[in-house]
Specification:
Largest sheet: 8 strands, mixed
Oligomer: single chain
CATH class of the largest domain: Alpha Beta
CATH topology of the largest domain: Fumarylacetoacetate hydrolase, domain 2
Bound molecules: calcium ion
Structural class: alpha+beta
Number of strands: 23
């Protein structure tokens, strides 16, 4: 089977304080490649993201050439680090199946909020709590409504995109500009404490029930590598407002799965999301909110309509995570393997 990390992929990450590209089971230290911009001898991809699409394309082309020639010195993968300094983090709510299922549990009389089909609903999360795959997740304490450790610790299966170069305040990013502003994608686990969330969320939305940890994959898959897997998005009814309209194919055909302690518990596909990533970025900035290199925008939990496609335990109704449980998210688009997101629950730091 294809490794998923071949020449058609070449995701970016950070190892040992340097920006690297992953190729098969090795990495190429980009600061050692002649002719590349001087932005890789540092522990985040942000300076590279800031350069914009012409530089992204140029680097990808040069790295591909070096790897094809077989002349580059490759290193073993050793403990990949958080690849980005995430300045701002947004989490959307873009799966109609997830929103409807959760709505039925939290608000049986009003499962899908009135605005849900008019705009991609989201909230601003806590960037400082974003951690790389492999980081242990400490079970959070809080009011549930009595104080104590959460008894309803959950995962959320999500796909996130990473921005660069961004725009200043007052300048929205149009849905049609997405290729100049979305660098690539990571898998995201939006860890959630449902008992804390249920008690605190009205009227301003998630706060401590979500902000204790969000895990992302160590490898950022460039949008350039995912272009062959862009497919038509599902129909939207009613037709969205003008700033949310797009032309072309903007759903991502990425097969997703989650296992807990090695047991497969859900499978799905990102192509079923109601709101697409160009619409998410256009909506997040339509008011002129600034976007900077390395901002993270997550899709919201990706669920399907069939049994076994629930993107979180709240929907599956099969109980919650125990201390010692390890949750692993995986994604695959054709020959491309997205970086996995793994986390183990612990009771103390
Ligand atoms: Ca979420």
């Amino acid at each position: 089977m294809n490794s998923g990390f071949g020449l058609d992929h070449l995701p970016y990450g950070v190892v040992d304080g340097h920006c690297v590209v992953r190729y098969e089971d090795h990495v190429l230290d980009l600061s050692t490649v002649p002719g590349l911009p001087p932005v890789f001898d540092c522990p985040t991809l942000n300076r590279f993201l800031a350069l914009g699409r012409p530089a992204w394309e140029d680097v990808r082309e040069k790295v591909t050439r070096v790897l094809e020639a077989g002349t580059a010195t490759l290193d073993a993968i050793y403990e990949p680090e958080l690849p980005l300094a995430v300045g701002d983090y947004v989490d959307f709510y873009s799966s109609i199946e997830h929103a409807t299922n959760v709505g039925r549990k939290f608000r049986p009389d009003d499962p899908l909020p009135p605005a849900w089909k008019a705009l991609p609903i989201g909230y601003h999360g806590r960037a400082g709590s974003i951690v790389v795959s492999g980081t242990e997740i400490v079970r959070p304490h809080g009011l549930r409504p009595s104080y104590g450790p959460t008894e309803e610790l959950d995962f959320e299966l999500e796909l996130g995109f990473v921005t660069g170069p961004g725009k200043h305040l007052g300048r929205p990013i149009g849905a049609g500009e997405v290729r100049d502003h979305v660098f690539g994608f990571v898998l995201v686990n939006d860890w959630s404490a449902r008992d804390i969330q249920r008690f605190e969320y009205r009227p301003l939305g998630p706060f401590l029930g979500k902000s204790f940890a969000t895990s992302i994959s160590a490898w950022v898959t460039p949008l350039a590598a995912l272009e062959p897997y862009l497919v038509p998005a599902r129909e939207q009814d009613p037709e969205p407002d003008g700033y949310l309209r797009t032309s072309g194919d903007w759903a991502l055909d990425i097969a997703l799965e989650v296992d807990v302690n090695g047991v497969l518990i859900t499978q799905g596909n990102a192509r079923g999301l109601y709101w697409t990533f160009p619409q998410q970025l256009a909506h997040a900035t339509v008011n002129g909110a600034a976007v900077r290199p390395g901002d993270l925008f997550a899709s919201g939990t990706i669920s399907g309509a069939e049994p076994g496609t629930h993107g979180c335990l709240l929907e599956a109704g099969t109980g919650y995570l125990a201390d010692g449980d390890t949750v692993t998210l995986r994604g695959r688009a054709g020959t491309i393997e997205l970086g996995a997101v793994r986390g183990t629950i612990v009771s103390e730091p």
